[in-house]
Amino acid sequence: MLSKSIAFGVAILGLFGLPGCNPASSHLAFVSLASSNMVAAYRINNHNGRFTPIVGSPYLAGESPAAIVVHPSNKFVYAVNQLGNDISLFTVDSNVGSISEVMPRTPCGVGPVSMVMNASGTLLFVSNAISSTISVYSIDSSTGALSQVSGSPFNTLSNPGQLALTPSSGFLYVVNSNQNAVVGYAVTASGSLQQVAGSPFATGLGPSAIAVDPGGNFVYVANLVANSLDVFSINSAGALTPAPGTPVATGGAPVAIAVKPSGQYVFVANQTTNNISVYSIDSSTGAPTQVTSSPFNVSTTPAFIQWDPNNAWVYVASQSAKDITEYTFNVISTTDFSFGPTSQSAGTSVSPAALAVSK
Q1: Strands 296-297, 288-290: pairing kind
Q2: Rounded CA separation 329/313 (Å)
Q3: Residue 169 has pLDDT above 70, yes or no
Q4: Percent of residues in the chain assigned helix, strand, coil, to nearest 5
Q5: Cβ atoms of 63 and 81 closer than 8 Å
Q6: 273: alpha, beta or left? (left if phi > 0; alpha if psi -120 to 50)
Q7: Burial class of residue 359 in the structure, from the number of CB atoms within 10 Å of its CB (0-12 exposed, 13-18 middle, 19+ buried)
Q8: Per the CB 3.0–4.6 Å rule, which of 32, 88, 124, 271 could disulfide with 353?
Q9: pLDDT tens digits for 85-140?
Q10: What are the residues whose beta carbons fall under 8 Å from the beta carbon of 299, sequence distance 6 or more?
């Protein structure tokens, strides 16, 4: 069940959640709600950022949906179910924004925790923490159906965590908190994985989150135990080299990373200090510099942080407040800017696990 504020929003959907609305004036957001086995859907107004829940939301998913992604066509949504050991496929109604699950669900490894899709929407990658594998699937462009590629699942180090894929889809990286390392793989055209020479690459203690910049030049790793951010440059073979001046300190227990679509700034959500550390990135070396006003206070226990694909807002989820708050930013200089909440937010009945936003 949605919170009262969001339930009230359903009553005033107007043009934002009914057939016949103009999709160009808005885009969709999908939130996995792990503890209730549901996926919530919202329409976000492109002009004022307002969240409006879709009629019928939230929708039943598998057992403990975690990571969630939207297909580039905006026709399909995928949620990986951490306790169900499978993947839910939903079709999206382009007019309303509602989703319908296509059964049966697709099996994956044991304890799936992370999922990424390539830019063309032809391949899907899932890391399975308990079975210590990475499952790779080809995607049928007409139906969204998943088929494991030859050789999948691929063995990796024990307890793999979050995944990150370069924009060209040439390299896949996965953090491993047991080994304090990042493992890199070259991705073939068919989706098979070949470990990068020199991999695994050492990180700080307890790597928990990973991201790649939009240019495909740098890898960012947040270290939960070390309270630090590692920055690595990527060479032509996919090998990683630490950037000058790294690692840099973050707040307490960094759990999530978001890279500005321009690649100029990196945002790190710190769970125990309830703030966001922001760094400007040297485009040639990757060296990070914390912006003057950083860190910025946010809602308690942030769970994830994500940029809106339209480069307009940043979304921060709170585990304890059970909501997603929208933030805006104003650049003051290359090393400083303001960051604060808008009046828009989406309440959920349980803690949100992950967010996927359509373009």
Answers
A1: unpaired
A2: 8
A3: yes
A4: 5, 50, 45
A5: yes
A6: alpha
A7: exposed
A8: 32
A9: 999 999 999 999 999 999 999 999 999 999 999 999 999 999 999 999 999 999 99
A10: 274, 316, 318, 320, 321, 323, 325
